[in-house]
Structure formats: C-alpha cells, structure tokens
Amino acid sequence: MKDFRLYAITGEQFHPGRGMIEVMEQAILGGADIVQLRDKKSDKPELLRKAKELRELTRRHGVTFIVNDHLDVAIESDADGVHLGQGDLPIEEARKRIGAGKIIGISTHAIEEARLAERQGADYIGVGPIFPTKTKEDVVAPVTVSYIREVASEIRIPFVAIGGIKLSNADQVIAAGATRICAVSEIVGSADVKGTCEAFLAKLRNGRQA
Ligand SMILES: Cc1ncc(COP(=O)(O)OP(=O)(O)O)c(N)n1
Ligand SMILES: Cc1nc(C(=O)O)sc1CCOP(=O)(O)O
Ligand SMILES: [Mg+2]
User: Fold this and answer.
1) Which CATH architecture has domain 6-209?
2) 3-state SS track over 69-114
3) What is the pTM of this model?
4) From 55, 77, 102, 107, the catalytic residue
5) 128 alpha carbon to ligand 2 midpoint, in Å?
6) What does the alpha-carbon distance between residue 146 and residue 152 come to, in Å, rounded to a whole number?
C-alpha cells in the first residue's frame, strides 16, 4: 500500500453545523494522506452515499480512502480498502472478497494480535487506544505508549497509533516510535482542521529528525 503519515477518521458528532466533506477536505489540504469513513449511526444506503462522496473527494486529491467495518460498502464505493476490528470477519475471508490489490487494516490492542495480523496478511494495523478516549464506546483500557514500543521493535507491516491522540501528547507517541498517527476528535473537532493536521505533520517530521 501507499505509505501514509496522518490518518484522519470522520466523526460528524464533533463538527455540528459543518459538513463532513468540507471538514475532510480541510484535513486533506492540511496533509492527511489517508481518510476513513467511520459512521456508527447511518443505515446502509446513507453509508454508501457518504462513501461515494468521500471516494470522489479522496480520488480528486490522490488520498487513500478506507471504509470502517463495512466490507460491502468498501467494495461498492470502490474504496481503497476496509478497516476491521478484532470482532469482525477474519482477514482471510475479507481478502477473498475484496481482492489482493486492496488494503485491509485491523485494530490491535496487544502484541499477540499484531503478530497474528501480520501473519494473516494485514496491510497495516491500528495500535491503540494509546490514551483514554470518549470517541469509541466499547473501547478497551488504554494500552499506553509501551505498546507502541513493542510494535515498533517487532512488527514489520505499517502501524498507526490511535486513541486519545492530541497535539499536546503527540510527542510522547512519536518518541515511543510511531511514525504514523491517527486521530478523530482532535482533527475533525478542531476549529482549524487544516492547521491541526499541519501541526501533527510538523511533529512527525521533527520526530523523524530526532
Ligand atoms: C486506524 C484505525 N484503527 C483502529 C480502529 C478501530 O476499529 P474497531 O476496533 O473495529 O472499532 P470501531 O472503529 O469500529 O469502533 C479504526 N477504526 N481505525
Ligand atoms: C476508533 C478508535 N479505535 C481505537 C482503537 O484503539 O482501536 S481508539 C478510537 C477512537 C479514536 O478517537 P479519538 O482520536 O477522538 O480519541
Ligand atoms: Mg470496527
């Protein structure tokens, strides 16, 4: 898969009065290079409509587009891939349905899950939740930056840190070895979405030099 640095996930509850496409376009203009549609409320037709809009936006900007949870919506909207949770369908089955050229990402919360995801052919893993977060209802206890250190030293596929990551704590995440960051509320809930993305990327760039 095309490498990425800043992963922006939709969260419409964080920007009342502003449209999702407008907000995600600001994230992309700020440098987000992968976008995920995460929507726990909409029904299938609504999800598909949003996925198609985001597909058009991301294609126009040359940015990777992932659909959370819904493999069928990912396929029908011609997304670049799907993000699975630990309780979702197995990677092997998802791969058969979505095809070899597409991206499969999976959430992990412990090194055993990361090892398994790598063996099963995931293209990237989510590593989290690093810090407490209110964005995800059924979230597990924070894994802390020590899990980033474990993954960075052992896992070879790309990993992205997620969960409670803010501009104010991103330096800890980067110092632990993360070279890719994912955020929901800090990005889409910001009054300056573009500036927030630029600030995350500046931190990631500085971290690489450190
Ligand atoms: C990049 C990334 N990492 C982790 C998640 C969480 O996925 P999951 O565990 O399936 O939980 P939900 O997002 O479905 O609530 C993610 N979506 N993206
Ligand atoms: C969607 C999600 N997945 C997580 C995981 O640990 O797998 S944490 C999380 C929520 C991230 O939202 P925020 O950046 O607002 O904390
Ligand atoms: Mg999920």
Assistant:
1) Alpha-Beta Barrel (3.20)
2) CCHHHHHHCCCCEEEECCCCCCHHHHHHHHCCCCEEEEEECCHHHH
3) 0.97
4) 107
5) 7
6) 10
